[in-house]
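worker-03 picked up job from queue 'complexes'. Input manifest follows; three sequence lines, order preserved.
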Amino acid sequence: MTDPAVDTSPFAPLIRRLTTLAPRLGVAPEEPAARGAGPLLDAIARRLRELDRADGVWLTLAVVAACLPTADEVRRVRRELRLASEATAYRVLMAATMRSPYGFAAEDVEVEIVDDVVVDVDFCARNRHNTGIQRVVRQTMARWHGHRPMTPVAWSDDLGAFRRLGADELQRVVDWPGSRVSPAPAETGAPTRVVVPWNTAVLHLEVPARHHLPGLAALAEFSGNRVGLIGYDTIPIVSADTVPIAETERFVHYLTLVKHSHRVAGISDTATNEFAGFASAAAAQALPGPTTVSVPLPVDRPDTATATGPVAVAGADLPLVLCVGSQEPRKNQLAVIAAAERLWDAGHRFRLRFIGGGSASFIHRFDEVVARARRRGLSIEVLRGAGDDDLVAAYREAAFTVFPSLHEGYGLPVAESLTFGVPVVTSDYGSTAEIARDGGCLLVDPRSDDEIGDAMERLLTEPETLAALRAQIAERPSRTWDDYAEDLWRELAEPLRGGA
Amino acid sequence: MTTQDLGARLGLVLAALASEQQRPAELPALREAVAVTIAEHGDSAVWLAIAVLDGAYPDPFAVVEGRRLFRRVPPLDALRELEKRRPRGWRFGPDVEIVADRVIVDVHHTARTGLATGIQRVVRNTIRHWSEEHEIELVGWESRMRGLRRLSEAERRNALFGTDPHAARPKRPAIAIPWRSRYLLPELAIEPERVPRIAALAEFSGNATGVIGYDCVPLTTAETVAEGMGPAFSRNLTAVSRVERVAAISDAAATEYAGWKRMLAGAGVSGPDVRAIPLATEASFPEGDDDAGLDRLVTDGLPLVLCVGSHEPRKNHLTVLHGAERLWSAGHRFCLAFIGGNSWNSREFEGEVERLRAEGRPVRAISDVDDDVLRAGYRHALFTVFPSINEGFGLPIAESLALGTPVVTSDFGSMREIADGAGGLLIDPRDDDAFAAGMERLLTDADLLDRLRAEAAARRPRTWGEYAADAWEYLVESR
Amino acid sequence: MTATDGLEASTVADLRAELEGLRRDYDELLNRDVATWLEQLRAEPGFVRDYERTLSWRITRPLRLARAFQVRLREDGVGPAVGQAVTVLKRSARRR
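worker-03 finished. Artifact:
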């Protein structure tokens, strides 16, 4: 009897995979494996046909092909098994892998079935981008790593499946500051290790890439694993007119994953409500949709900022009004400029600074409006591609910030401003209003230039108001990333770990 | 080349905003009067002024910027700036006319097509009744989607009856600008050129607005929809988010719209009122030959099971094929026929039909049938099947039952609404066992079949007249 | 033990041996089937590449262009349709 682990015959890779798979279906593999790959495949196929369960079919396809099957593939194989006889069931499985676009090209790839919590952090593992979503993922994973029983995974584009992270990838996820100073990693050529979750929780902490979604949606629908998501926002749907078409296209396919998933932890009450609204629409298809729960992000500063407190800049006697955020229609910067123009005409004097990248289709318009305002005498500065140091310096110098965004899932610039002790003028609905609840903000209707201007005027002319807001900020209850990571594990991972 | 110079256009604006005012003869005085009136009126006047001056409806951004202008500088300067912002070719564009105090119904697609898809059937039947009972203005969009325009007589006839899909368009129609009117959209509008214009009309123009809501499938079931439809539909919904009322065609459709509406709060938008106004269930087949085209549907004189519907994944035809194959393997004797119109992403379905036919199974798939063949098929069939996984309505169910033939269909959503207790056998369409069992029951249980036929015969169908009246009541009359 | 028991015993032994033989034959058939299957999978490395090629946007773009031309032709006539086609082709020539 050959040991599957060391057997080097041409059947060995297949036997290894089938041996991994068999016990999960209630088949003892040793005896058939001793007779060869054929009898082992036959035993598994007969059992699969007898079980007639979608999750068994899903697991078999995932393990044998090292590729997450689509919903169509799962349904098709299940139907073929039902129509096949006991004796021909194994041919159904062979035909299934022939149809897969990936074939069996990856036969030397090791496939592991994992019953830890599987955490999908693909983008953060493979990219050095670090805004918004990536910050949430990295802060959370840094705290879960080593303390929570979990298996972080990335995606293998070659195979169409989850895989374990390389050492450098892991560092990029759980030790972002450290990875930034590490030299760029050389190609290691380490073999891919495919991970197939089984009877466990699968958490997507990011919004997966478009081409991952069919396999991930099928996992949510058929595999029996319990899928949890962080719910950031539904801006590509609700404010579709403000985002590129490709983003909405990806997002509607993300919604297919959402409707089959089990739990969504929204980053604010507003975001949670958006996902709850979508879940209620799914009732029209007799789908339960996910349970939604609010796990609000903490109010915390940029990772690299250490200094706090305001700092006076020599030679600048005019107060600095700061506007942080990417320049795009949804962030509503044109309203800030319109309000600023009115104040300038009324004799108020200040400096206005915009920090943030611009969306290509919008900056032309934005720059035109800025140029026109400058011609009327306003002092406006626009910093694109500013580093963290410029940002921190601006916060420390600013009298207040203005963020009248039309639609946010959270509103990072509001939270950032508050961590620097700088009062904020922001929108009176949605997630920004939630952050404002604990003090330090003036709330306005962002669609009213007048209200924005009035609030700015108050903060320019009423030092007692400014002081009162600063005092409120100091009194705000503290919520840290430690709190968030703990809450997220408790609200998202724990309920999904133990079984339906 | 427009016949209306600047003075004529400004005159139109003044007449609409302040009809009691005497129109000044000289341009400077006219300008002054119009500028002041716009500043007094607010958003809707800004929308109107831009539409009239440009000869094209503005998008939301243009209205917001125009409004800012009137706040920032004296009215006269603002008006001059609007004049400066007119598109370069406005002089070569069409005339404009203001349509005030009317009910305007946008039937752009229906006016140009003979196709009787689900949506076109709804629109045609509805506007036929509306135009008989009420004064309505049927409109389409100008060829460059700059704005609405009245239909020619031939287009109007085609919109109502579908008899003249190549109806000649008016040569140089004027852009029709609604004012203090009601704009109703009973179709689906997704062209990128006109959606922002509809959005701005709904949000700023002051006109009352309403749409018929068919479903939100591109959001809720995106895996069954072609690339590009998700974004196009989502942008359509941003326009619908500013509309006052959505008449959803079923409770299920209303559920989808209500769920979407809940998502709007994060953008500070309250969204439209949503109500289910269920479609008619009466069949509109003319009397015909009961045997028409049966040779194309029936195999070997076997009892016929019929499945009507486009070949796309959402209709779930693979479940039908699988159930039939199981039953044939078990010895049941019947033939299966699919009547499909369009097909999309249907390669697996077509492959399976081919395989089954090669194995000698009695199955056919045809498309491109006349109404009389369709009607004959419904009447001849033992029963029909329709296990769709998401429908706004489900016309083939209503048609089957209206002609007295029971249907095996899904136990949720609009399908349940139409078929429950009216001759339908309801099953879970995601469960192969349940579907096959449902088919088997109707193949073997003659009593059940008779019971369902009796239910179908006893149910009084909802007529198009009733639907049109209810939709009018909700969209036009209710407050 | 009788003479007939002995006969049954040898029959049972024969049957058992035949059964073992059949089982081995069956296993061999299964293994041979699997071997053929693996061979086919390994012998088609081009399959993935060919499949990927059919998904390339460079193949679908001309089809998209043709369709857009058709639609425009039908809706607005020859002039605008040709105009649109020229614009698109100019744009893509510039990009190259």
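worker-03 released lock.
The two ends of chain C are 96 Å apart (CA to CA).
Residues 48-62 of chain C have pLDDT under 50 and may be disordered.
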